[in-house]
Amino acid sequence: MTRVSVAEDRAFVDAAGSGLDARDIPRARISTEQILAMKQGQDTHSALTQRAPMLFIKPMFEPINAVQIRVSLDEIKPAIWRRLILPSGWTLDKLHLVIQAAFNWWNCHLHEFQIGGLRYGDAAFLMEDASKGDPQVFESRGVRLRDFQRGSRFTYLYDFGDDWSHTIEIEQFLALDPAPKQGTCIDGAGARPPEDVGGVNGYEQFLKIIRDETDPRHDEMRSWAGGDFDPDWFDLAIIDKDVKNALRANVRRRLYQPKPTQTKAKI
């Protein structure tokens, strides 16, 4: 995909009465009068170039079709994170599947998004056993990524037992050519903790045991984790492939980390 340059600042344009949608002129500082002039077919080139000559470029009229986000696991150091580019029209239910793929979670526990004090997820499922007074859950399929502002942050919670909290940051909106139809991972660091390890505290204990070969639980714990576990593991090619396949039906997750590649000795 070729990234089209766009102005860094988000546009705050009052398009009332113009018949235009502000999303059609993303991230450019254009006044209401100039929008009206454009609609009426007036010569706005000189007005625009005089006011903001560096903004008068074709890309500023390209509609936003992608969003770059950063997803990081909370309370763990060194940081475990992924930088993703996704179609801006995708909803939170698709973002859930992408995060599962990007961290190779197994998608076998409950999840929800927490945004501005409100809960979003599979509303019918999460409210099925709710008690009186429990916060209402709103449907995640009703919220699109392009509904957020640049710089927004919110939380994705996976596994209500281990409580894996992820912080999602909207880094920037993009106009890409061609428009993306699937997600992409462009950067990141660190391996996510094993499923069902017991949350942050359990993960810290797990790392302590597998690093201490004298611990009587060492062999058992390594075997439980698949034989090898490197907390610093990150393979961009593998993770990007996982993200690209995130929405495929019946997609399979790796149970364990890929085995480290062994270099053959020269003869």
Give a verbal description of the structure.
This protein is α+β, with helices and mostly antiparallel strands and 267 residues long. The chain has two domains: 2-61, no CATH class; 66-244, Roll (Structural Genomics Hypothetical 15.5 Kd Protein In mrcA-pckA Intergenic Region, Chain A), CATH 3.10.290. The chain contains seven helices and nine strands, in the order E-H-H-E-E-H-E-E-H-E-E-E-E-H-H-H. Strands 1, 2, 3, 4, 5, 6, 7, 8 and 9 form a nine-stranded mixed sheet that branches. Helix 3 runs antiparallel to helix 7. The radius of gyration is 23 Å and the shape is globular. The two termini are 43 Å apart.
Helix content: 10-25%
Number of domains: 2
Looking at how many chains there are and whether they match, the oligomeric state comes to single chain
- The CATH topology name of the largest domain reads Structural Genomics Hypothetical 15.5 Kd Protein In mrcA-pckA Intergenic Region, Chain A
Superfamily at the CATH H level of the largest domain? MM3350-like
CATH architecture of the largest domain: Roll
* Beta content: 15-25%
Distance between the termini: 43 Å
- CATH top level label of the largest domain: Alpha Beta
